[in-house]
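Researcher: First entry.
Model:
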Amino acid sequence: MSTIRIEDLADPALDDGQRGALAYAAGLDITFDVDALLAEARTRTGLTDFGPDDFVVRLHAMVDAIESDTGLGPLGRLILRQRTVRLLANRLLVEDQVRRHPEILDIELAEPIIVIGLPRSGTTHLVNLIAADPRLRALPYWESLEPLAGPGADTRYERCAQNYAAATAMAPLVVAMHDQYPDAIEEEIELQDIDFASYTLEWHARVPRWRDFYFGLDQRPHYAYLKKVLQVCTHERGPSRWVLKSPQHLEQIGALVSTFSDATFAVTHRDPVSVIQSAITMAAYGDRMRRPRIEPEALAAYWVDRIERLLRACVRDRDLLPADRTVDVIFDAFMADDVGLVERIYERARLPMTGTARAALDAYMAANPRGKHGRVVYDLQGDFGLDPATVRERFGFYFDRFPVPVESGADRRPGP
């Protein structure tokens, strides 16, 4: 297994292709006029009805937050503009599909398995492993971006593959941190974004204004919208028992449980310092194409605070999850016995581990060993100027609540 140390994280050394992409975007007039965004989505789909128009207020808030990020470069702005139009087009297609097939809303999404946990805490590996079981329905990356095909030939997969190749060329080391290839199982948060109410924008730009707006939302109607989009996806192809995952669920447990009342929940736990240094290294590496200046210290400060907020919400609301249908997944134990942990989750979900299912999980494990694309070296002190032990002291409340071991590099376990 190769070891990767990103030496130019704060001051990127760009190749000709990267410089060319940045120069191309710099020559464009990239605007976020809301009426123009709506019109472009209508033109793309040939549809006009977005459904309930309450989302427009949230769309304006999102655009306002993007515009307030004065450090976002032209390519970062272009990516977000294209993403916004895609989400609007998805909304038009979802509303049209439900209008033409109202029976979609009667589809039962029985007993889903939902993975909740911080980014970089094992959620992606866990959901991909469970999704290898052919009895379950999951969300591949290509479908998460475009749950329904637009007019003409269905080229969603091919478009995702082309974009994946382009993104990998611009930021090749991302595959070693979080490989979003077309068939990889991804987060349903992309579906939540169709209602313009998730925290995803925070990963694309420096948008505390959007964070604060998002905190003020009652998430129950937006989780209901997620359920509607999942029903649409189920109508397109089965089976109907889903495996889902999203870090955002940590701070929206009440809305999650009320929407999926018969779900089984797997809550992943990991040393927050390991989570933070991994997550912000990936974000900083991606910023070389999004931002003229990386500003790693500011990025770190934002996400240390944001991870703390997520975990405080988890500690506050963890007991809202049904005790008989919830498993706490400690990262080290999961890495030591991946399939055994899935068996524990299956017991809570009343899903027997058949020979066929076990073989499918074993095959996934054999094809996807940890560190398949190399292992990135993370250095919180050297790259971001933060002392791991000092950062860890902020999370004593979390270590007190869950039996999470300190990972290598720690000098002590946090006290009360």
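Researcher: Second entry.
Model:
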Amino acid sequence: MSILLQINEVGSNAVQTAAQTGVDELSVMDLAIKGGWIMIVLLILSILTVYIFIERYLAINKSLKEDSGFMNSIREFIHSGNIDGAKSLAKSAQTPIARMIEKGLFRLGRPLPDINAAIENVGKLEVSRLERGVSMVAVVAGVGPMLGFLGTVTGMVRAFFDMAKAGNNIDIQLLSSGIYEAMITTVGGLIVGIMAYLMYNLLVARINKVVFILEARAAEFMDLLHEPAK
């Protein structure tokens, strides 16, 4: 019974001491400041990655929007011999699919392999436009953790340097400062790297979907040129 009373007394004293001294709470700003210049670089990279992701995601989604009656209208114009009407429709649509079909319409009268090559070239250009900036997201996905590990190494070097400089008068607070910085940069680098990795793969998946649609519409257009006129 006396042992329990002693334990309770020690616990209450610890609580009172903590209440008197106050316990610091970590905030995101404190972590960023403590991490040093590497955290500033990681913050800039994260902002750049989010901006590129949002801008590219909206652009890719816009290119995925497709008028279900577009190819049927093109088919009707071609079968009726109204090539100019088909060109006007493709030009007014202002989508990657429409620009690809428009190029094929302007190549009508030439051999089919030439038309197919022209369509494929336009399709590649459209995909290249959609991929603009996506490689930067991939770079951040790889560089982010590396910067974090660099901060880890520099933080540990600083910790050991402080230990060597202090000699026999090693202060635990002095030692923990460098280790603290090392751990913060590691966490920051991994967070930025994982975020960029997920964003990159999501953008690639959306672009692959655009590629599939472009290939399908190109094949549909070439099949349309083989259909007999009604």
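Model: Note on the second entry: Residues 24 and 45 are 29 Å apart (CA to CA).
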